[in-house]
Amino acid sequence: MQQLDFPVWLRVEHWLNVLFLTLLIRSGIEIIATHPKLYWRNDSRPGTEWARFTRKRMPKDKLYDTLDEEESYSSVVALPGHKQLGMGRHWHFVSVIGWILTGLVYVVLLFATGQWLRYVPTSWSIFPTAWDDLMTYLSFDLPPLLPGQPLDALQKLAYAGVIFLLAPFQILTGAAQSPAVEARFPRYVRLFGGRQAARSLHFLGLVAFLVFLAVHLAMIISWGWPELNALMIFGEVRDLNAALWLSLGILAAVVLVHVGATVVSLRSPRRVQQGLGWIVNSFRRLVLRRLISRQDYARSKLSVEHRVNGKPPCSTEYKLMAVHNFADWRLEIGGLVERPMTLTLDDLRALREPHSQRVLHNCVQGWSSIGEWGGVPLREVVEMVRPLPQTRHLCFLTMQDTGRDEPSAEGAGQFYEVVDLELAREPQTLLAYEMNGGPLPIKHGAPLRLRVETQVGFKMAKWIERIEFVSGYACIGKGMGGWREDNVFYDKDVEV
Ligand SMILES: Nc1nc2c(c(=O)[nH]1)N[C@H]1C(S)=C(S)[C@@H](COP(=O)(O)O)O[C@H]1N2
Ligand SMILES: [Mo]
Q1: Distance 306 CA to ligand 2 centre (A)
Q2: Which parts of the sequence belong to the Cytochrome b561 bacterial/Ni-hydrogenase domain (predicted)?
Q3: Which pTM value belongs to this model?
């Protein structure tokens, strides 16, 4: 029979796992901080959360948005802490790539070397034995190890559960939160009970990992830290002191990575955004870019109260337009096009019967709602104005001046977002002037807003006044591809 020892790859994998899991946990907590509430239903209706990690109470009589609900957690628990969702996302996604690659190598080697026998039970008798082991532990005693194996029955089942159930569960519930995956495979998300249920389950998976870590450490202490530690360092029980120092050295290196990641994220977020963004984007392009939205939720699934993000323009000009039902509003389309245009709302309505779609909206903060949007598919407008060959992106400029309209937000200036031409041509990319069968309400972007269903919500500019076709965006704003990218360091392409 295969000897279940501690080959070098197993030891390396173990310590890499420590690094990636802890990075995932801290960056995950940063992501929760931005909307510290958990729901079961897709509409994330205020008041229906089953768990909340904040003391803030939101007003019932005033328009507030999700940014007002955000919490600032300490860097001790969150990477990097202090309301840096953009940074938390970059670290979470980079770590998840590292963790999945580590996991794949691990599983392949486990099966290639016969070491899988240490985790995969080969007889039903393991269950009654594990029960006996549990009773033994509860009476503060140590159960016998399985013959010829490094673990007792209960430990074997616990490790098998973490490796073959919990880890895949976290990956699957994580994927179920990607707007691109949801848009292309709405049924996949339904498997978990919807977007918010997937988010809640992902959180419970985090709790399960924390419990596992606590029990794992307790076990090591009760079975003999020095010897087990030596096994994880040298692969055999020898040089206990050297093993101790080496393991402390590895842990110090892990802590150093965490401290370093936290400090650069807080001090030079732009560098982290560019560096990690490059890694994450390469994977995202490879895996998610070809997913095209195919959503059509039933009318009965529409959220009674669609959540809101961003505060409407409060200029007199905008208010006057609103009073006149936006008769004076104009949409300018220009830049690298053959036929620049200026359209009124009536012109847009006259283009065609409104196209409508019932879709799930994912805010980067974590909430979701389902709405019906009506308007003109953007690709029809693109065909009308005829982009020049060098066009790569569309820049959506809005009537919102964030410094004036949302003073509590970080950053100032005109809100804009850049979307790639290929996304603009997808069937469910929409210039919407209707919502749930009526005119688009002011808080949702009247008179015109964008819908790009494979992306996270912040790409969908509201209160649009101009669309500029461009070949690059380095000269727009701070050059990162949108107001949020410029000011709060989000990633430009947000299929997750
Ligand atoms: N002009 C502008 N558009 C915006 C925003 C904003 O702050 N300003 N917020 C974005 C974000 S973060 C989200 S989640 C969606 C919210 O759309 P909703 O309020 O219709 O739900 O709008 C997006 N469009
Ligand atoms: Mo958002």
Answers
A1: 12
A2: 6-226
A3: 0.96
Give mean pLDDT, residues 235-260: 97
Tell me how crowded residue 272 is: count the other CB atoms within 10 A of its CB.
22
Residues in the chain: 496
Question: Ligand 2: distance of its center to the CA of 369 in Å?
Answer: 11
pLDDT tens per residue across span 104-156: 999 999 999 999 999 999 999 999 999 999 999 999 999 999 999 999 999 99
User: Ligand 1: residues within 6 Å at CB?
Assistant: 306-310, 361, 363, 398, 400, 415, 444-445, 457-458, 460-463
Q: Of the ligands numbered here, which is closest to the C-alpha atom of 463?
A: 1
CA dihedral defined by 246, 252, 253, 255, rounded to 10 degrees? 150
Distance CA 496, CA 493 (A): 8
Q: How far apart are CA 194 and CA 334, in angstroms?
A: 40
Where do the structural domains in the chain lie, given as residue ranges?
8-35+70-287, 299-487
Nearest to 361 by CA among 310, 288, 420: 310
With contact defined as beta carbons under 8 Å apart, do 82 and 72 qualify?
Answer: yes
pLDDT of residue 176: 97
